[in-house]
Amino acid sequence: MKKCLLILLLGVAGASAGDSPETAHGLVRAESIYPPPLEEVRYATTYNFTGHVLYPYPAVFLHKDAADALQKVQEELGTQGLGLKIYDGYRPLSVQARMWQIVPDERYVSDPLKSKGKHTRGTAVDVTLVDHMGNELRMPTTYDDFTEKAHRTSDKWTGEERANSLRLEAVMKKHGFVPFQYEWWHFDLEGWEKYPPMDISFEDLARGVLTTNPVP
Fold it and tell me: Which terminus of the chain is more exposed, N or C, with fewer CB under 10 A?
């Protein structure tokens, strides 16, 4: 039943798109941040929790407001000999729906029938810390580890893992991001709910399309 509703949701979005005025999506490449964060876009490969290629090419897009906030994060980390690695940013609603079909667990994947997701707004970002050589600092788990050890309340972290996670959390919170309780790597820009969900494709973004139809 949920699968049918999911298909219906996406169908309605597509059908009504032509009747809705296009709006500026405000998405920019994460590489526009200076110095550019490292990127490891696993959803452009089969090396992710779905085992499927979900993005047509490896790139991270963010709403400009989120990118501006991450710019401040990157600048502060640079004074400490550290930097960011980004795993994911904007995610089209159609991809969010596909993920939900594979892992229908709201602790780890937003239900598109409810909130239409956070990554779909370009305001959610999945990140970790790297040293000046690009090596990842030790964190509680690997990226997209759907176990309780990835939860911020876990008591299974080592001292080093906790220190690094809290260091990342502190600098992200300082510059306007809210940590997600079930994933140490996930942060949402404050006020994320004010940004509309989108389903503009990576292909259109690559072609330089600047507007999109709002998702109902």
Answer: N
